[in-house]
Amino acid sequence: MWSYFWHIAFTALLTLGRLTAGIQLDINDPNSIKDAAATAAYGMMTYYHGNESGQIPGKLPGTWWTGGEVFMALVQYWYWTGDTSYNDVTKQALIWQKGHNDYLPDNYTQDLGNDDQVFWGLAAMTAAELNFPEDEEVSWLALAQGVFNTQAEKWDPDTCHGGLRWQRNSWNGGYDLKNSVSNGGFFQLAARLARYTKNETYTEWAEKAFTWATSVPLIIEKGWTINDLVTVESNCQAPNQMQWSYNYGIYFNGAAYMYNLTNGDTKWKNVVEGLLNTTWRNFFPQEYGGNIMVEPCEPQKQGVVPCDGNQSTFKSLVTAWLAFTTTIMPETLDQILPKLQGSAEGAAKQCSGPSPDKICGQRWFLDKYDGVTGLREHMCALSVFTANMVPFKTGNRDQGPLTADTGGTSKGDPSAGTGSRKPEKDKPREITTGDRVGASIATVVVVGIWLGIAAFMVTGG
Length: 461
Description:
By secondary structure, the protein is mainly alpha-helical. Helix content is 49%, strand content 4%. The chain has a 3-stranded antiparallel β-sheet. Helix 2 runs antiparallel to helix 13 and helix 11 (314-328) runs parallel beside helix 13 (375-387). The N and C termini lie far apart (53 Å).
């Protein structure tokens, strides 16, 4: 009995010592990167119970959209590492929450924002592009198309000449806002569908969505900054200028897809380069060496409000988008890879918490575990670790993101989410002349001062 006790105690001490020292990461060794990613994935999934009896698949603590992020991260984990441990639970969640093939499940539809929905759509699009295993029950591509179709129906030319509102329903707080992440998500999804299917309608929608964002002060082309949102009340001319990394990521990655689709169009090259430069300046501060990602809410300084649950996830999204930007726009690799490597090494030091479910902290610029931990912190660590597999995948014949012409096997349904299934030849809703004219109109008068709803907007969605 006592020998067994001492064996357990000794094992616990060894484990504690390993955690205290942090994850031992060799950024130049793919096996070391995979081990680090496996540790972070395990820690993240200790917070998930949707695959247990009596629980709801795909449901996670906090906001519904977090599930889209988590299972998108697990699809990417499988792709980069080859580890199938979480494939079944990922597939179950992505199917369970699909609603009517549009990621508008009945239990959540009344309260969803367009940004909430689009992250599940982007997860499905990622699964399609990476040939994540499908069942006969579902097509990843069709689910992404269902999200696109239901969002295209919400395009709002009656206010501000276009754009998506933040919220889908008029009774929800935030309906009178048009924000970057909702419109950027729609833009990115359209760009990815255009590249995958070569359907010109998706290309036109991507062009229109981007043009609209630059016609109001969401995307400021001079200096390439992205504001968080604008108000309908101000004719979309009074911006909230809060800077969040996922707004940049969602647009630079979408622009990289358009660059790839158009065989290197200078327009999209300039967009990607401009947004990356601002991303480096805003979220990889020289104060911490210039290669470690930092959200504005992370430094413990006077006047800085700590990150909320949503803001704590942004690094997961951005590091993944940086990784895939290098694969579809290879000339960006030399500037992106050092940022991913520095961030991963910082995350490894932060992953030194007291137990497997509390191992990874939030602030990668600190050398020691900061005590801020949870599902989101583990997800961010997982994403930045897997993103560092990029140099070891380069040149592989099956390198994603794939298209229907380069090995993608997911079959689409252009009518998904519209309530009826039509032959494959049918197209999404066409862009009208009015849409094109509306997208090009830019008003230039800024009216009023922003009234301070940044915290509400970010925490509400």
